[in-house]
Design brief:
259 residues, alpha/beta, Rossmann fold, 4-stranded parallel beta sheet, 8 helices, 8 strands, 43% helix, metal ion binding, lyase activity, CbiX-like
């Protein structure tokens, strides 16, 4: 048996975003322990999942743990990545494949959000928090981000923690901004994104425009590169490699289901 780990990042047209994803994974690799570790991208950036899978096999891998570097479980994790895995397995039928979970809802996540706010400014108890999610047509994404927002509120002194989404879910980011234009108290905007990218650039542009006439919107950094996130992701890697009770064994019939 020779173990490989195939990391799958989202991908971006922005080179800096792909570099950040690789840097994040490079920080985790020394602790993962597998002799073969390859970073790939689902879309927009090379290498592809197929190319990475082939590299693993060429290096002698007999077992490949595919681990998505995604914040929440949506269509990419439930359908798009599994379809790519299935295609690879058809080309290399003798390889044993396990498939891991996205970072998801985790007890350490609220601390990451609160840390990002405190890094930006000394928050006040009367301030509100808004988590800005990527968004998805999958209702589970909205539910998960709302659950994270509730955890943040419970672990902090903020009276209100809301969510909005950049695409495919309501309330939209622009709808939220229209509401916030009328807000007089401090508002801490937390992009619930792993890394920079075109979406982050758009957020910065929109907030900057509003702050030309207001001074109460405080945009934090995105949440990647936090020690807690590195720990959670390493846990996701290890559980996929160990595959206790076979719960992470890849099964064709589970393509449309999450773990």
């Amino acid at each position: 048996m020779k173990q490989a780990i195939l990391y799958v990042c989202h991908g971006s047209r922005l080179k800096e975003a792909c570099q950040e994803a690789c840097q994040f994974i490079d920080k985790v690799k020394p602790f993962a322990g597998a002799p073969i570790q390859i970073t790939t991208f689902l879309e927009l950036s090379p290498p592809t999942i197929e190319e990475g899978f082939k590299q693993c096999v060429e290096k002698g891998a007999t077992h490949i743990a595919v681990v998505p570097l995604l914040l929440l479980t949506a269509v990419h994790a439930k359908k798009d990545i599994p379809k790519e895995i299935l295609s690879c397995m058809e080309n290399y039928p003798g390889i044993h494949v396990t498939y891991g979970r996205p970072i998801g809802v985790h007890p350490l996540i609220p601390e990451v959000v609160i840390d990002r706010i405190n890094e930006r400014i000394q928050a006040t108890p009367d301030g509100k928090v808004v988590l800005i999610g990527r968004g998805s047509s999958d209702p589970a994404v909205k539910k998960d981000l709302q659950e994270i927002a509730a955890f943040v509120q419970k672990k902090s002194f903020f009276p209100e923690v809301n969510v909005c989404f950049l695409t495919a879910a309501k309330p939209s980011f622009h709808e939220m901004l229209e509401v916030l234009k009328m807000e007089t108290k401090p508002v801490y905007l937390v992009p619930y994104l792993l890394f920079t990218g075109l979406l982050m650039k758009d957020i910065e542009k929109e907030v900057r425009a509003i702050n030309e006439v207001k001074d109460n919107l405080f945009l934090t950094n995105y949440i990647g590169f936090h020690p807690h996130l590195e720990k959670i992701f390493l846990d996701r890697v290890n559980e996929t490699v160990l595959n206790e009770d076979q719960q992470f064994s890849f099964r064709k019939e589970e393509i449309n289901c999450s773990h």
